[in-house]
Amino acid sequence: MSYAYDLKAGARRIAAQIVEILKGGNPAEMPFFQETRFELVINLKAAKELGLELPAGLLASADAVIE
């Protein structure tokens, strides 16, 4: 199970900042971005192998379930 920020969106934001730096931007003047979107991913196969039973509510609220 993983609960983390959206990695694709974070990578896009970092890439945009790198482009801005390469164009001559000052990193000290760039804003800091706090992630606002988080994803819950559950590996159901691993949970079953460990003998864990996950509540249906948790599975329903997950953004992705790996079977």
Describe the structure.
1% of the residues are buried. The protein is 42% helix and 19% strand. The model has no long low-confidence stretch (mean pLDDT 93). The chain is elongated and about 55 Å long. With 67 residues, it is of the alpha+beta class. It has helices at 7-22, 44-49, 56-61, and strands at 2-5, 38-43, 64-66.
Q: Main β-sheet: number of strands, strand sense, barrel status?
A: 3 strands, mixed
Q: From the helix content, strand content and strand pairing, which structural class follows?
A: alpha+beta
Helix-strand sequence: EHEHHE
Overall geometry comes to elongated
Number of strands: 3
Strand order of the biggest β-sheet: 1-2-3
Estimate the helix proportion, in percent. Answer: 40-55%
Short précis:
By secondary structure, the protein is an alpha+beta fold.
Quick tags:
elongated; 67 residues; three-stranded mixed beta sheet; 42% helix
Q: What's the topology here?
A:
Elements: E1 2-5, H1 7-22, E2 38-43, H2 44-49, H3 56-61, E3 64-66
Parallel strand pairs: 2-3
Antiparallel strand pairs: 1-2
